[in-house]
Automatic annotation (TrEMBL):
It catalyses: L-histidyl-[protein] + phosphoenolpyruvate = N(pros)-phospho-L-histidyl-[protein] + pyruvate. Its EC number is 2.7.3.9. Its cofactor is Mg(2+). The active site is at H178, C484. It comes from Rhizobium loti. It holds the Pfam family PEP-utilisers_N. Phosphoenolpyruvate binds at R283, R317, N436, D437, R447. InterPro entries: PEP-util_enz_mobile_dom, PEP-utilizing_PTS_enzyme, PEP_util_C, Phosphohistidine_dom_sf, PTS_EI, PTS_EI-like, PTS_EIN, PtsI_HPr-bd_sf. Residues 242-522 form the PEP-utilising enzyme C-terminal domain. Residues 4-118 form the Phosphotransferase system enzyme I N-terminal domain. This is Phosphoenolpyruvate-protein phosphotransferase. GO terms for biological process: phosphoenolpyruvate-dependent sugar phosphotransferase system. GO terms for molecular function: kinase activity; metal ion binding; phosphoenolpyruvate-protein phosphotransferase activity.
């Protein structure tokens, strides 16, 4: 039986199915309410300790998620109702489940996307403690298993040992979820949006996360075909690594710049600058966690990456908060945050925060080849206002005798208004196409919704036509154009992007080798 889905992280996995939604082990009730209270306290402590241990080895994105979970677990407002229920005679497991389910229901009923999204975190927190209460050793998947279910929590992904294979197959999920990004960075095969549920199924399965399907109870012929495809994929990966040290070029010898996207300064620690042409996108949202970052914190982060890159360009994006990236104390609650106060709109509404980032960028610029770009630009006035703020802060630093440098200022092309009428932005230093948002806005298909994932394709002619027109406008007017969305690292999309005229792509570090190899196969 073959079930089709959507590839979220390419690769192949062969192993036993493990049901993520299996009922938890039965809790052994205690003799008194005091013992029940002690049991729940110990389980919460155990869950916190488990998460803290994972944080120690997690990257910045994952650590931020886990730290949020720890903060919630340590919040009396979350556990208080459960302890009150225990005092009235409920067992620890029932009290905790009821208290968390009530909280989850409240979040899911919200008309705010942010709170509905947090319901997933609460379900994860609930299950972490229930597992600790029951000491459910059976909740750990066997080595090499294919984890299947409705969805998977980030903590479940992070505590799984992927060193001996395995994969993920989900009925829901999203190619843009935190887990999907983690899976791609670690090379874990993952398929989302399966057209049929896998609940209650068991036995061996074959997960093809290159094409997006899973085969249950495979026949010998299906196993043979699967293993040939898997071997071919592994061979292509091995061959791709030979391209790492070479400049990227098409089969005809046309040079293509390949830069990297990074989310945290630590991302460059394991990356050789010689393997890429610079940083095409450095996100700065990692700095905006529980507390808003001060100028010195930002300056040190930017300086580290600039010094690592040497004379190669580092394009830093001003904070792109909002949408699916809420920041406490900064972003606002909105009914439709993807079309609301996000990106440059939010920065221009909060000049107290934006000016701090601008000063840090200006001070860091002398330490390398910095370029700065603004996200979610829709009209020329937004760019002009942001550029004017840079000029104001530059003058202030100069008056104080503080070392600084004005970097080239460019914009993200992710709002269709810019892609349709780029002539309004002829004064910018460069364009960087954000394929993720541009595609979702052109196709009216959310990039985090598996149900419409088939619509969300950068290879749709409408999206490629806009990319081609922006690239042509840039070439005719001497404005460099690059692309820094996920499509740049997708071997299947790369030929179409090069045909559209792009010659500068920025990809996740884990996709660097495959992207260069894919470019070498294109006949442009």
């Amino acid at each position: 039986m073959r079930i089709e889905g959507v590839p979220a992280s390419a690769g192949y996995a062969e192993g036993p199915l493990f049901d993520l939604d299996r009922p938890p082990a039965i809790y052994a009730s205690k003799a008194t309410s005091a013992e029940e209270k002690t049991s729940l306290e110990a389980a919460i402590g155990k869950a916190v300790s488990r998460l803290a241990a994972i944080v120690e080895t997690a990257d910045s994105d994952a650590a931020g998620i886990l730290e949020f979970h720890i903060a919630m677990l340590e919040d009396d407002a979350l556990s208080g109702p459960a302890f009150a229920s225990i005092a009235s005679g409920r067992t620890a497991d029932a009290a905790w489940r009821e208290a968390l389910d009530a909280e989850i229901a409240g979040y899911e009923a919200s008309d705010q996307d942010y709170f509905r999204a947090r319901a997933t975190d609460l379900r994860d927190i609930r299950d972490q403690v229930l597992r600790a209460l029951t000491e459910d050793g059976g909740a750990t998947a066997p080595t090499g298993a294919i984890l299947c279910g409705e969805d998977i929590a980030p903590t479940r992904f992070l505590e799984t040992d992927w060193s001996h294979g395995g994969g993920i197959a989900l009925k829901a999920g999203s190619t843009a979820s935190h887990v999907a990004m983690l899976a791609r960075s670690r090379g874990v095969p993952m398929v989302v949006g399966l057209r049929e549920p896998l609940a209650g199924l068991a036995g061996m399965a074959l997960l093809d996360a290159e094409h997006g399907n899973i085969v249950l109870a495979p026949s010998p012929a299906e196993i043979g075909s699967f293993r040939r495809s898997s071997s071919s994929f592994t061979a292509r990966q091995g061959k791709a690594r030979t391209f790492l040290a070479r400049p990227a070029a098409t089969r005809a010898g046309t040079a293509v710049r390949v830069q990297v996207n990074i989310a945290d300064p630590s991302d460059v620690d394991a990356l050789d600058i010689a393997t890429c042409d610079g940083v095409g996108l450095m996100r700065t949202e990692f700095l905006f966690g529980r507390i808003l970052p001060d100028e010195e914190t930002q300056y040190r982060a930017y300086r580290k990456v600039l010094e690592w890159a040497g004379d190669k360009p580092v394009t830093i994006r001003t904070v792109d908060a909002g949408g699916d990236k809420p920041v406490p104390g900064f972003t606002v609650e909105e009914g439709n945050p993807f079309l609301g106060l996000r990106g440059i709109r939010l920065s221009l509404a909060r000049l107290d925060i934006f000016r701090v980032q601008i000063r840090a960028l200006l001070r860091a610029a002398p330490h390398g080849n910095l370029r700065v770009m603004f996200p979610m630009i829709a009209i020329a006035d937004e760019y002009e206002r942001a550029a004017a703020l840079f000029a104001e802060e530059q003058a202030a630093l100069a008056a104080r005798g503080v070392a600084h440098k004005m970097p080239p200022l460019g914009i993200m092309v992710e709002v269709p208004s810019v892609a349709i009428a780029p002539e309004a932005f002829s004064g910018v230093a460069f364009f960087s196409i954000g394929s993720n948002d541009l595609t979702q806005y052109v196709m009216a298909a959310a990039r985090d919704n598996a149900a419409v994932a088939h619509l969300n394709s950068v290879r749709h002619p409408a999206v490629l036509r806009l990319i081609g027109s922006v690239t042509a406008f840039g070439r005719e007017n001497g404005i460099p154009v690059s692309l820094c969305g996920d499509a740049g690292g997708d071997p299947d999309a790369i030929p179409s992007l090069l045909e559209a005229g792009l010659r500068d792509l920025s990809v996740a570090p884990a996709q660097l080798a495959m992207a260069k190899a894919a470019i070498s196969d294109v006949s442009v």
